[in-house]
């Protein structure tokens, strides 16, 4: 097209300025426009990349050199990152423009964006008489793309934080295989589960984003050293002969009946595309949530020990000695959900309890992973609902952690097993709320997963 990146970026910046979704924690218009001008220069020289000049919003969990990076926490308010996350660098290397940093649950802990120190985010699909959450923890990224404040955004997914907000905001959200995208410069929550991924309108856009974001990085010890891939390469392949497995455990108690109907209808549509549908079982699925809520807090309690008021971010102003400084800093700097996780995690890791909780949870994780291996002997992809319900009202679940945790009951198993998974648009409820269809594929089969998503869209 003829629109310059500067014009495009300007347009998005003014939409952001005029919006009331609270989707962004910070923007730096001058910096974004400078990046856009540089991209326009490259366009003038006929340099082409599908992302050249494209503005992209970045979840505020990614460090960007010289930019405030808060992770949604008071603890990091005003923290200026001294280096850039690999994922952001890779998107930049394709000529994309950083539009700003999006709102998120504090340290990515949450499913509603309500734990952000920078305030709740409004779901653009909220009806006139009610304010709904966008999901979380990548709630700002989801709201930004859904409201047309950015054409695409990055997110991170430890237990569902890309897929659940994608389903609440009618987007395509992809969590890649564990190790696909470097975690370098992405503030750690639960290191064995965390993965970065794209949040877009379509699988086609997600494929372009992932192609730029993925790749080996020697600065992340769990980064996969596999060949670079073009994730768009299979998009247009036929689905003739595809076998879809539908785990019966994903349609049990707690699932909203309208969501079930919409998801079943979406899966049925695949028959017209040449697919066969088969009922399968993941018998240990009920163990996913309990094992996740030991493993994720355990890793978080360790990762978050670095926020001690000494090295970066917030420090309490009144204290008597070093221990008092640590205590007051962490008491004042962290919100309730983060403290809850740190306490659960420290307990699960403590001597005498480690074997009973942490090591037990790791064993359950293996069983869950084995279930997937067995299921994929019978099918090419698994499908079900992304979440048990559509988006809910702000303040309706904030005081009930367990009901909040149940949001991720269908998404967490893929994180525990390290598998790629996506949420795509399945349809709308009678109240016009979006519902997501969840797709899980075998390890490293993102290209196939995106093909399956694209053929439906
Ligand atoms: N909602 C889940 C949690 O609070 C998942 C969060 C995430 O994926 N970052 O832990």
What keywords describe this structure?
alpha/beta, binds glutamine, eight-stranded mixed β-sheet, globular, 11 strands, Amidase signature (AS) enzymes, 14 helices, three-stranded mixed β-sheet, about 450 residues
Ligands present: glutamine
Structural class: alpha/beta
The N- and C-terminal alpha carbons lie at a distance of 24 Å
The CATH superfamily is Amidase signature (AS) domain
Give me the strand/helix succession: HEHEHEHEHEEHEHEHHHHEHHEEH
Beta-strand proportion: 5-15%
CATH class type: Alpha Beta
Per DSSP, the total helix count is 14
User: What oligomeric state is this?
Assistant: single chain
Mean pLDDT: 97
Share of helix among residues?
25-40%
Main sheet: which strands, in order across? Answer: 4-6-5-10-11-9-7-8
The CATH topology comes to Amidase signature (AS) enzymes
Organism: Arenicella xantha
Subunit structure: Heterotrimer of A, B and C subunits.
Catalytic activity: L-glutamyl-tRNA(Gln) + L-glutamine + ATP + H2O = L-glutaminyl-tRNA(Gln) + L-glutamate + ADP + phosphate + H(+)
Family: Belongs to the amidase family. GatA subfamily.
